[in-house]
Amino acid sequence: MKFKLHSLSKTFIAAVLLSVPVGSTLAVNNVFAKTDVVKAAPYHYSNKDLTNKFSRAGYVFKLIDAEDGALIKTNGKSYSPKVLQKIVKNNTLFKVKKVRPIHNGMLVDLVSKDGKYKGTTVYLNGIYNKHAHDKKLQPLIKAELSVMTAKDNKKPTAKLLGKAEALANKLTGREKKIALTSIKQVKEFIKYGTLGEIPVLLIGLYPVIQK
Length: 211
Known about the structure:
single chain; alpha+beta; 5 strands; globular
């Protein structure tokens, strides 16, 4: 089972970094596709709590693509395409250092595990969790995405959540620990339905783009 990551557009990241309305840009990659997430405030957590949520995950995030603007340096300029390609090719791992609210969502400040790269991107579709490729976790991921899509469409979630919980409890070791944390975060999403409650495991995979 494979999941399609939401690639980042140059126009999109430029718009959000400038904190201006993105209008038609959002329609291009359909990132916020008419869900309750968009109608609500970006999140109900404090900036500190939200930062802690993502930073606790550790060095598990990767850049989704090497497109110009995928990672903006502290001076406001993008890393060069050559450097970005190297980062993606080498599967460089990043940790979230800070989460910042913007007009239509959130930005995350990242630092690589070796400390060589630091920059900012859009948390919703600029990074993804490396554990998304773990084959043992993929049935759970599919089940959790179904729960969240049902929530967006104002459909019942209890049965779908029960299925996801059952899958989580069947796992062992590291996968089970990741799964149980993700289930807890899915429950928060069901309760609040804002950007901040998207499970760390599903960053870059949610919202599900409908074709």
